[in-house]
Amino acid sequence: MLIFFAAFASLAAPQAAPATTPVALPSPERRQQLLFDAARLGRTDMIDPLVKAGADINAYDDRGFTPVILAAYNGQAATVDALIAKGANACRPDRDQGNTAQMGVAFKGEDAIAARLLKAGCDVNARNNAGQTALMMASLFNRTHQVDMLLAAGADRTIQDAAGRSASSVAADQGNAPMATRVKR
Fold first, then answer.
1. What CATH number did the domain enclosing 85 receive?
2. Torsion angle of alpha carbons 151, 156, 157, 162, nearest 10°?
3. How far apart are CA 103 and CA 72, in angstroms?
4. What is the pLDDT of residues 49-108, one digit of tens each?
5. Is 159 helix (H, G, I), strand (E, B) or coil?
6. CA triple 110-115-119, angle to 5 deg
7. Which of 87, 92, 111, 161 is the most exposed place for a label (fewest CB within 10 A)?
8. What is the pLDDT of residues 140-183, one digit of tens each?
């Protein structure tokens, strides 16, 4: 019985406070990866500390995406706002295909983020490496509201991609006559 009490007595005995040691920051590479993860997962609370710790708000991840593209593509509207407020370039295309965040949200159907990106002042007629525009992508994926927003912002409905297709012909190729007509008029 004495052994039993002795074992638990050490739990209640006051201990000396451990010496405080400075907390080491993660490596620069890890901080950058954490920023990409925060953007993708909507961890808006992590944007400011990571940028202050040296993460590049406009860097490319290993797949060629920027934090804004990752946040936009994953539907993280508040994170898109936070990144832009911290100085992120909302217009920077991905490294490999030249797709912009605006093109990504046309694919994903994120209308609220599309509106935010338009307000950021990016070229509404920006083209990817295949010559495609956000209007073409919105037409392709039948994103009526985004098509209307892009046209209202000055999107050029006559631009043709590298294959000679316009936003209207892209919609027509998908069998979407109403969208083809909407974009053409």
1. 1.25.40.20
2. -140
3. 10
4. 999 999 999 999 999 999 999 999 999 999 999 999 999 999 999 999 999 999 999 999
5. coil
6. 145
7. 87
8. 999 999 999 999 999 999 999 999 999 999 999 999 999 999 99
Nearest residue to 105 (alpha-carbon basis) of 131, 138, 133: 138
Q: Which of 39, 112, 48 is nearest to 69 (CA)?
A: 39
Interatomic CA distance for residues 10 and 88, integer angstroms:
54
Task: Name the nearest CA neighbour of 49 among 22, 31, 30.
Answer: 31
DSSP string, 140-158: HTT-HHHHHHHHHTT--TT
Q: How far apart are CA 165 and CA 97, in angstroms?
A: 18
Domain of 62? 27-89
Asked if residue 80 is part of any domain, the answer here is yes
Contact 117, 102 (CB under 8 A): yes
State the amino acid at position 10 in one-letter form: S
What pTM value is reported for the model?
0.84
Q: Are the C-beta atoms of residues 83 and 67 closer than 8 Å to each other?
A: yes
11: which DSSP letter? H
Q: Counting beta carbons within 10 angstroms of the beta carbon of residue 42, is it exposed (0 to 12), middle (13 to 18) or buried (19 or more)?
A: middle
Residue 48 and residue 42: Cα distance in Å, rounded? 13
